Amino acid sequence: MKLRDLSVAVALGAVVLAPAAIAQTAGYKTPRNAWGQPDLQGNWTNATITPAERDPKYGDRLALTEQEVKELESSNAQLVAEGNKPTDPNAKVTDLPTNCGRGFTGVDCGYNSAWVDPGTRIIDLQGVKRSSIIVEPKNGRIPPLTKEAQEKLKTRLVRGGRGSFDNPENRSLGERCILSFGSSAGPPMLPLLYNNNYQIVQTKDEVAIDVEMVHDVRHIRLASQHLPPNMKLWMGDSIGHWEGDTLVVETTNMRPEQAFRGASPELKVVERFTRVAPNQIKYSFTVSDPQVYTRPYTGEVALNAAKGPIYEYACHEGNYALPGILAGARTEEKEALATAKAAASGGNEK
Description:
The chain is of the alpha+beta class and 350 residues long. It is 16% helix and 22% strand. It has a 9-stranded mixed beta barrel with strand order 1-7-8-9-10-11-12-13-14. Strands 2-3 form a two-stranded antiparallel sheet.
């Protein structure tokens, strides 16, 4: 079991382009299944080192140059090689590096690089090497929060700290093996540090997506209506329909515990799956949440063909994360209490 919430690695969301903007590879014709639907079935991966939000130095430029791609992919390869070097078996926690890349520092560097597999390549969608997953707004950045959302965020930060270690329910859904880390299962379905694989299976009335991370399964009902608003589901209530070669999926009614980027009950995600080549699906998604964001935003990810099968993610096997985290918190509390008593007694407390 992984010891921390990896959602920091994949914060993002999106606004979809119109169907006409999704062009297929020249001469490619989407295959049909037994029901005449565009065939999206197979094993796919969205692994990539393209970040969710664009580095401001690129401005409004979505396409990277070949030299920029080479530098970014080479830098990632060097980071992987560094992380794969043998660790001194006599090393102590205090010997860990202060910065080990991918946003990890200090004790978080104990997360062995052998378990990290975010991908090695920049997103390449129909010949365009992407500087970010977010494509709208044009600067590739998540829109500002509303004033109401900013105030709620301040409140959450004030209430955070040690209280988040009080009981299992305060810990992340990923640590509790309830739902994938970050937003791997979605929607939107976003890449993260490892287990970026999916299997798509279709029937006449449903599209199911088996998500490798925590072994989630999304059920997308076709030609259906949304459930009543009071019926909240993990990964939300997803209904889909076909627009030409594109599967359009609208999701509402997410459980509040999922809280994608501090989402409100008004969160709606619209996704589009278009097979643009034998080995690639263009996955676009829109996140709309007027209570949280000042405008919707859009992202695009390449789902590239992957070797199968998708193995079970047996999350709770050998899971010592929760007992360790909570026991550590109780120990710190006892030590702090003992220190306070000693100070109150003038240092005479035994």
